[in-house]
Every structure is written in structure tokens, then in C-alpha cells.
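Collaborator request, handled under Task 6.
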Amino acid sequence: MKSVIRHVGLSALSLAVLAGCSSIDGSTEQIQTTNQAAQVALSAPPQVDQALTLNQIMANPDWMGLFAKGAYWSDDGQSVYFARQAHGAPTKTYYQQSIDGTAASELTLNQLHSADQRRGVLNNDKARKAYIYQGNLFVKDLTSAKVTQLTRQNTAVDGVRFLNSGDIAYWQGDNIFKIHQDSGLVEQIANIKMAAEPKGVQEPSSYIAKQQHRLIQYVAMQQENAKSKQDYKAELAKSDPTISAKTWYLGDKEVVTDLSLSPDGRYVIVALKDKEYSWRSDHDIMPNYLGKDGYVDAVPARARVAEDKNPGERLVLLDLETHAKKDITIEGLTGFDEDVLVAVKAENAKAKGESYKSEKAPRNLQLMQDWGWSQSAIQWTESGDKVAVMLEAVDNKDRWIATVNLDKGSLTTQHRLHDDAWVNYNFNQYGWLPNSDSLYYLSEETGFSHIYLKEQGEKPKALTQGKYVVSDITLGPKAQFIYYKANKTHPGIDNVYRVEIATGKDEQLTQWQGQLDYTLSPDGTALLLNASTRIQPAELFVQPIGGKLKQLTDYTSDAFKHYAWQAPEVVAVPSTHGAGEVYARVYLPQGYDKNSADKYPAVIFNHGAGYLQNAHYGFSGYFREFMFHNLLAQQGYVVMDMDYRGSKGYGRDWRTAVYRQMGTPEVEDLKDGVNWMATNVNVDAGKVGTYGGSYGGFLTFMALFNEPELFQAGAALRPVTDWAHYNAPYTSNILNTPDVDPIAYERSSPIEHAQGLQKPLLIMSGVLDDNVFFQDSVRLVQRLIELEKPMFETAIYPVEPHGFRQPSSWLDEYRRIHKLFEQELK
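C-alpha cells returned to the collaborator:
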């Protein structure tokens, strides 16, 4: 299918906001999925009737359309719910859209409680659904669709589950309650207190105390009365069925970080962490110079990796039936005491003229902290007689799936995923197959994320395999299939597949030529897709399994979709550094002529996050940059956007290529990108600039500081300048910690290489950035001043966080970037 690109003037773009929508032809652009190597013939860009302007690109993004967000299925599978929110608006508007194609209806405020069921839980026969709305508990009869509110209180409910008895259990803070379905009685079944257990009535122990009790009858009588009351209460608690459960005292040195109740209501697994550990210290503040009262506000900010000493968590098993408590020991985890950083520690010791002696010691562990999942790291079987936990080492080198012996409180390793670099914080979904001893899970052990089955005591079985990435797995409602997303046909193209568990038969369910996310309908007969292409922002579609794709929403504005956007070509740049091929997007200049005597200037954009994919066939999350690159192309530039090593979507080796050397392999890839453009699209290698934000800003620094002849100018937005000042969860994966691996930090931090700057550099930062602190730029600026480097400029944005919000700030930022390139590259 080939789309019709209409050459319509962009006069409507001059309007501040265009949120109106109209129908589109329903077709999608044709995607060329063949790898573009050297000497390729790229498609000429479309002609435009009106040039883009920075004012148009950086205006309030609502002019592009107010798109559906957070879409999910209704319980009957006949409609979907989603929200829309104007840029900068404090609240969202919610809608229900029938899959028969009728127009979406806006939900009123008094309807929201019956629609907010995205993360509800089902009872065993799937006839009732419990969910939390605005902190209160509701239950829905799925046959009659009747919704009943079970709590109405100011203390929010944190979690809910159906018990095998049909009763509903829920927890608030450290307390667990059960609602009896026959009577509606609310029973507290667990009262957890993080305090030392009261000692009760104590016998006199010192000479003076004993003498007092022996000689003074009144004191002795008071002692006997207190003991009698204590014994009476103990007997009453045992015999009186109206008394609530005994209190669990777990000590005063820790806090509860997670808890999970078994489906039979007997066991609770509690995760505890040292209460002295904090995400910040008193000195971790961010100054807001434009406080509402006219003063400088000290805003709390997160700790730096150099100071974040994560002690890990420990697990405790509580038996609510016998009131027995067991500490879950970690000795059953394979490699729990290995010195996995021995080579790193030895290298750093040698650099200091010292030696390192390796010794085994228990490692700090915690429940797996996956950055994308909504499931718990603690998974019970339906019966509640078995439970698995997913744990990770705080040193980031191991992930375990282990079963818990409920009688002994011990662990048995079912699967260990070890990585000498770091275990991915994605691709960790797992669970039990119903009515079995088999676990299913994702693992990167072959170098790519794939699905495995593991029966206890047996070897794992791979359900998928190949050089592609599997993610977002869903167990079908009848447990016959596991559904998943994968980029099988091209690293930049997503589709949905399913594999039959019994036979391993694999089936492709969608034929999309871009990027998508999916949700399986409750009955497993259809997919809800949030899907995009290179020049079409994401809209909602329904794909009946085995049926025809149907578009549900059309929220892209006429002004955006009628413009002749240039769809970037996705090419494969051959690596001269042993990396195979580096995928990149390429935008060609207006009137492009490969044989022109005048060579073109070029710009390379460096995406943020490090572990992120942008050279794909979907609509870029960097939508402003997409439009800016169209503008640059109209003005005679070639623009390249590379998925340098470390990017997402290409497997484990690509991801971990940056381990202990951030900024080295990526710059090598940028060099190959410049050479590719010079060879294939008539670019003047002496007229290339680069820019990017966050990790992209860091990469701009590393390129200009370490390869001063590669780029003639660079712009670094909200950039990392010293990794020791970034957060622990991200940085410690890649560089370990500064106290353990200072070599990696000095090798990877731009401030350590600032003396290499020779070309014009623009540094731009938001003062209220609580992700990459404004202090990062301040420290680098002072370093450049002391190095007497005259070729840099700075711009600050007093009200902006990491992701800028004000259109005026975006406009100012990109005017400066554009001016830099115009001055230095043409």
C-alpha cells in the first residue's frame, strides 16, 4: 500500500493550536526494509509548497493533534478506553470508543470510577473483577456489569487480590484486610508493625527490684495483676473468634518496601530495607531561582551514584495460620556469594599500584526492579502452594528466578541470568503456567530477549529463538498461547506474534510496517494496537486475530497530515570498528543531487537515553527533532540520526558495548556515519555538526572533546558532564560505582576530557532539571573557563525541567542550535 502525500501549503501551521481531526485515506506508506549499504540510491525528498519555520515546529504541539494515551480494553471487549490531554493541561479527559467504528464518547466525572479498571484482578472463575479507583476498592460483576464500591475512606488502598475462597483481600500500608463475601465483614488478617516487639510483663532482675517485690506486698500484687491480664489477653486472642489477628513486629531498623499475599490467604512475603537508606541526603537540593514567593526555593533532588549506597532488601515469610515468621535465606541462589567484580577491582587496584585479593561474601540483593513492567516480582501459583521470586544483585550482574520453600523459608534457583556487564532492566516478565509447575520467562541469555519455559527440575525450553528482540509477553486467557512483540523482519519494525505453548508453533498476527504497542482483548480474539509509521503519529487500531485491521482513532490534525513531510530513509551504515551495521535515519536536502559539484553540509542528531531506539520505521518520540530535521533538509542539509552502540532493539552485545567505556564505541559509530554520508550522499566531511540532549548531549561532548576534527560544531542540551553525579539505578549498571571502578568513570565522563575542545560548542540546560542536574553544566563551564577555552557559549532556561515544557523555551533553544549550524557549517 502506498500513501498519497498531498502537496498542500502549510498556512494552517501558523495557527497556535489545531486540535481538530478529519478522516484519512487509511493507507500506510510503503516501507523499504532492505539494508541500505554503500552506494545506495536514496529516494528524493518530496517537494514542499511552503517552508517550515522554527516558530511552527516549536509551537504548542497540540496543533499536531491530541492523541489517545493509555488505551485499554473494556471488560466485554466491545470498546476501548483512553485519555487525551492538552499540552500543559493539569488534567486529562477520558473517552470510551466502540470498536464498531462509532465516534468516541467523553466520560463524565461520575463515570470514571466504572471505567478505571485497567489493572483490575479477576477471581478464579473470571466472573468478578476487583480494582482500585482514587484509592478506594471496587468490584465489578462481569456478567451484569454491576459495579459495587467496597471502601470509601481517605487512606488509599495499595493493592488487591481475590482469594481462592472468593473473598477479597486488600492492603493499605503494612496492613492486610479480608472482606468476607458472604457477610461483608472486614477482617484484618495481618497487622505488620516496624517496631521492636513489646517485652510484656518482665520479672524483676536486679537485686533492688527483687527486694522491692519481696518486701512490698503492693508492688508484688501489681506484678501479679499485670501478669494475669497479659495471660487473659493471650487466651482471649486464641479462643475468641471476634478478635483480629495478632500483630507482627518486624523490628525498628527497616521499612516495608513490598509485600505479596498468597491466593489462599495463608502466607505473606514481605520485602524489607534498611530505613536509614534514602534516595537523597540533606545536601541533595536543586535551587529554584524563580520561586513563587520571590525567594530561592531549595527543591529536594535525588542522590548521586557516588553516594548512593543501596543495601538491598531481605525477604521474610509470614505464616498467617500458625503465626510463624521465617527469614528467607539467600544461600539457595547460585552464585549468591561470588566476587563478580574481581577483574574490575583488580584493574583499579593495579592502577593505584596495589593488589586485590578476591574473597567470597554474600551480595546485596533486591526484588527485580524492571523499568517497564506492571507485574510483581513475586509470583504465586493459582493454588497458592508455590511461589517464585525474581531477584537481582545490587551490583547488576545477576538475575535469579527462585522458588521459595514455604516450610523452610529457603530458596531454590530455577534460573540464573548472569551478565559480566549488566543484566537488562527490561525483558524480565515471568510467571507460572496455570495448573502446572512450569514457569515462563524472558531472558537475554543467547544475546537476544526470548521466551523460555522451565519446569522445576528440568532444563529450560526456548519457545522463540533468533537474532531479534522479543518483548511485552502476554499469556492468553486459556493459556494456549503466549503473545509477544518482536522485530523479526527488521530491527526497526514491530509486529505481534503468538507461540503455541504445547507445540512451539509460531504465528504472525499483524502486518504493520512501523512501530506498535499492543494489548490482547479479554477473550483473546483481538489486539488493540497503538501504531505509527515514519510520518504518521500513533493512532489506535483493532486487529481481530485472523481478521482485517480497523482504525479506531483519527486525531492527527489536518495541518500535520496534509503537509509533505520527508520520511527519513532507514539505512545500514557498515561499521569499520567490528560492529557489523549501524542503523540510521537519513534526511536528504531539498533538490538533492548526488552528483552535484557542491557538496552538502550535514548534521548528526544523537538520541537521548543511551538505551533507546530511534532509527526505526515508526513515528519518532523526538517529534520536534523530526520536524527540525525536515527544516534542515529544506535548507540544504543532510541529516543523520544514528542508533549508535548502546541503543535499544539490537540485542545484548549492542546494548553492553558501552560497558565501562561510555562515549567510545558511540563516537566510533558517529565517525562511520560521517564517512558514510561523505561517500554516499555527497556530504562535505569538513562541514558536519552534531547535537543532542541528555545522553545525546553527553555524546556531543565526547565527540568534540576526543575527536576534535570529526565535527565542526556541536550543541549539547541538558547534558551529562560527569557520570559520578548521575543517578545510581542507571549509571551503576554501565560503569559500576565510582568507589569500585573509578577508571570507568574517568574514561567515560566528559569533564575529564574537556581539554580536547577545539570547535564551537553550545551548552544549554534547564535550571530545574532534576534528572541531569544544572550543576553538571555549571561544573563543566567552570572547567572550560579554567582551561581558557574561548569557543563555547551557554544558555540557561530558569523554569525548565529535563524535558522542556514551554514552547518559548523550545523555540529559543532551537534558534540557537540553528544559528550555530548556519554560522559554522555553511
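The cover message to the collaborator said: "Residues 231 and 667 are 74 Å apart (CA to CA). The chain has 14 helices and 44 strands. Please let us know whether this matches your experimental observations."
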